[in-house]
Amino acid sequence: MKKIRDFSEKIEEKIRIYLSHRPKLYALIVGIGIVIFWRGVWHTTDFIHNLIFYFQGNITTDSLSGTWWDGPLSFIVGIVILFISGAFTSSFIGNELILSGLRGEKRLSQKTETEIKGEEEFISDIKGELETMTEKVEQLEKEVHKKN
Fold this sequence. Notes:
Elements: H1 2-20, H2 23-52, H3 70-85, H4 95-103, H5 113-147
């Protein structure tokens, strides 16, 4: 099972990095994956609703004339597209996802606790330096105003 997971993560990473260099293609593939995923959810729900309520005719799609596996197949295909593109767990495809692929960074779920703490310390150090610089600029402004 671990080998399968590692293999799928390697494939996902390669595809994500490839697509991050092509943001329009990335957005198109993820958009298609989202639409297919929700189509599958919608059709499967309609089919189950019809089974439960014994085909009462209160349906939003024509699931009576379609095949029973249409919804679940769309659902599975959508999930596969979103998993392979690396966008399944992200709520949107934005700059950070694309930039992390360009930089070859790991996703937050792949980072260790040590890496996350290191990043927190780095950000904290930058914040401290900014505060120090702000104080020095304010002191310089006061000195300039005193001289004028």
